[in-house]
Amino acid sequence: MQESQSPKAIVGRFAPSPTGELHFGSLIAAVASYLQAKTAGGHWLIRIEDIDPPREVPGSAERILEDLRAFGLQSDLPVVYQSQRTDAYRSAVAQLIEQGLAFNCGCSRADLPATGIYPGTCRNGLAAGKTARSIRLKTTGEPIRFIDLIQGPQQENLAETVGDFVIWRADGLPAYQLATAVDDAFQQVSEVTRGADLLNSTARQIHVLNSLGLPAPEYAHHPVVCGKDGRKLSKRQQSDPVSALPRDQALKR
Ligand code: GLU
Fold first, then answer.
1. How far apart are CA 31 and CA 28, in angstroms?
2. Distant-in-sequence, close-in-space partners of 159: CB < 8 Å, separation ≥ 6
3. Which residues, 6+ apart, have CB-to-CB distance to 179 below 8 Å?
4. Which of 7-16, 96-105, 166-175, 178-187 has the lowest mean pLDDT?
5. Which of 53, 102, 103, 153 is deepest in the core (most CB within 10 A)?
6. Measuring from each residue's beta carbon to the nearest atom of ligand 1, which residues come in under 6 Å?
7. Ordered strands of the 165-168 beta sheet
8. Which residue's CA is the nearest one to ligand 1's atom 8?
């Protein structure tokens, strides 16, 4: 069959976790991903990453969407909520286990060496006396390489930096690295534009996609906004919410 010659559709996304108010730093991430997609004639989507109830702040998903709307930032397709996608994450994990690419692990954080790099303890079966707690994805010694559209060429050998990593958590929740990768593929995202604080998650997400036989998007990690103390603005530090700023001034700093 002849390969399609039409250019791949451009799809960008903004994927906030509802763990607090939208602050200036996340507004920049939203605007950056929006402009990246829209200037290329693409679509822009919003995904609410509400898979971690212990960290969520009730009502913040609605307030984030409201704040985005006030800046004219609306998803071109219905907003995806990760809390409604558990079946998709379960079937991705089932596929990985079935293919021998993921395994049950009985180790707790206390069992890991000080480096935090998983030593492969349960890779070939649960270690004696352990019961299954989490599920890990096997890493290989092959470096993951990608060209970040802002940060340039990147490579990471996951076996050396993290080891086999958790894709299903001991508390029964899907891990961020799994859910985000599965949903970027599900939503046919072609470009992930987000803050550089997430650059070190990218190789793991590409590895999840490669393992599932799904295409990886392109990535662009922009510098993050820091406060006067030099630290990244964050919802958890309760950085000034954009809703507290006059609309016509929030983007004029
Ligand atoms: N949900 C993540 C956060 O709010 C961002 C995920 C992503 O953009 O990949 O930090």
1. 5
2. 139, 140, 141
3. 49, 51, 82, 85, 89
4. 7-16
5. 102
6. 15-17, 49, 180, 194, 198
7. 102-105, 134-137, 165-168
8. 15
